[in-house]
What does this fold into?
Amino acid sequence: MKTQIFLASPKGFCAGVERAINTVERAINTVENIQKTGHGDIHDNIYVYHEIVHNSYIIENFKKQGIKFINHLSELPDNAKSIVFSAHGVSREIMKAAEKKNLRIIDATCPLVD
It folds into this structure.
């Protein structure tokens, strides 16, 4: 009996993951542009609540660009200005807690997450 192996061609990411990755990339570009014009400071770090997507290559690449991943809002330093919510979304309680901290909320939640 012959064994046949079929290799699937890579199809890329789903639209929600693609959107989340693009959201973080836009945030990086925005902070870099603000800093270049002198309107920001070196403390304009980008914090992401949990991993933006489940892909270690993407996560490591973002870490190399200075993205900080946190698992609890209590991990944010006092000077944090923004938080990105991952493609997986967050509970209403987390959203309210972030609002109480006066954080700029960047929601990268996949539109299909309920």
Observations:
- Strands lie at 47-49, 68-70, 82-85, 104-107.
- The longest helix spans residues 15-36.
- The two ends are 47 Å apart (CA to CA).
